[in-house]
Amino acid sequence: MKARGAKSPNPNTSGPPDGSDATAVAEVPGLYGPFTFSERLLQRIWARREFDGAAARTADGRTVEILDAGRWNGLGGPDFLGARLRLGGTEMVGDVELHLYAADWAAHAHARDPAYAGVVLHAVLFPSEEKFTAGAGGQKIPVLVLLPLLFRGLEEYAEDAAVEALAHRPQARAPAELAALDPGPLAMLLTRHAAQRWRSKVGFARQRIARLGWDGACHHAALEILGYRLNRAPMLAVATQFPLAAWAAGKVDPAAAWAAQEGCWQAHGVRPPNHPHRRLRQYAAWTAARPDWPARLRALAATLPAPPPDGAEPTRALRHQHRLPALRNKLAAALCADAVGGTRFDTLVCDGLLPLLAAETGTELGGLWQIWYPGDLPETLLPALRALGVFTAPARPACHGTAQGLLGWLLETGKR
């Protein structure tokens, strides 16, 4: 890993108010080559508490409880102002500064800047040998390393941030640029990007299984997707605090799981079916009815169809050939006792179950993922593909893989 030069922050990425100078980035090895991870993204992870706060310890061994992450500062000075923390059992209010590397504090000469005199915690991404950061007048500022606490890999955080930024931008240029292509080359381009998206999802799933084991990976993925998109972080915190075995044994009260992340849930703008309290009750019903659902999922691998992933055959014909509506109903009943349905179930299949199953068993499931129903996707994708003539009912109805192909193309062109 190496630090790279300053880079202008993406104004479309959810972040601090205008004026932030969080421009530092690190270059990190990824599944298919290096990618960049920005200090702005680290700040967003802190603001949303997208890490295991229950396991947080300073470098000198004290517990860290984040009662209030603080106000995201878009002006000069510390990144978060007025944070409320409980450090080693002692409650305090002060500022929090975040860096990719602990050495960045000295490199930026913060100890000589009076604006940083109120910093009570220095949170950094990558580990170092420093147990304290030297503040003004020799003050010892505790260091908290976030990398071991992250729920997911750095590349997955970076990709999700890019997708989220894309979801909030109009994609009117996509039809105009892609409409210049003939149908054949356009289909090949989308298929190529869809294949890359599928490989990435399987790679992320493999990393999750290596970190959490099969049951834990399934459990975390299920709750994360139930929280999609605004409540992923608190759902992952719930998954960490309340393991699958506790849910399966009926020992988790959804109200208690809700209360454990009080203050972290996003309810504004969430439709009633997606309210996180309701999703927690769904998961309780699911695990009560199918306590062994990860084992059931793994046993299903050999029974799933393997349509070709090249997109050459019409989607409708492949769905009919492989009886996809019946398979969808079978999976919903066998795995979650129909506790989850609609587009959220399709998202669960495409973002969770199929990549996990492919990573765990080596079964080729990319073709099935390609023709599956779209699920919850950025709302601009499907209209763009219809405008391009790619989704033409009834022969070629909307499908998940091709939509992911367009998403992959948009992400790639956004980096240029």
Radius of gyration: 23 Å
> Roughly how many Å apart are the termini?
22 Å
Name the poorly predicted regions.
1-14, 17-21
Largest sheet: 7 strands, mixed
DSSP helical segment count? 16
Tell me the β content: 5-15%
Number of strands: 10
Following the backbone from N to C, one meets helices and strands in this order, namely EEEHEEEEHEEEHHHHHHHHHHHHHH
Mean pLDDT: 91
Shape descriptor: globular
Helix/strand-derived class? alpha+beta
Q: Helical proportion?
A: 40-55%
Q: How many domains comprise the coordinates?
A: 2
How does this model look, in words?
The chain has 416 residues and is an alpha+beta fold. The protein folds into two domains: 148 residues, no CATH class; 246 residues, no CATH class. It is built from 16 helices and ten strands. The strands form two sheets. Strands 4, 5, 6, 7, 8, 9 and 10 form a seven-stranded mixed β-sheet that branches. Helix 5 crosses helix 6, helix 5 crosses helix 13 and helix 8 crosses helix 9. It is globular, with a radius of gyration of 23 Å. It starts with a strand and ends with a helix.
In short:
By secondary structure, this protein is of the alpha+beta class. It is built from 16 helices and ten strands. β7, α2 and β8 form a beta-alpha-beta unit.
What key attributes describe this structure?
three-stranded antiparallel sheet, alpha+beta, 2 domains, 16 helices, 10 strands, 13% strand, 416 residues, seven-stranded mixed sheet
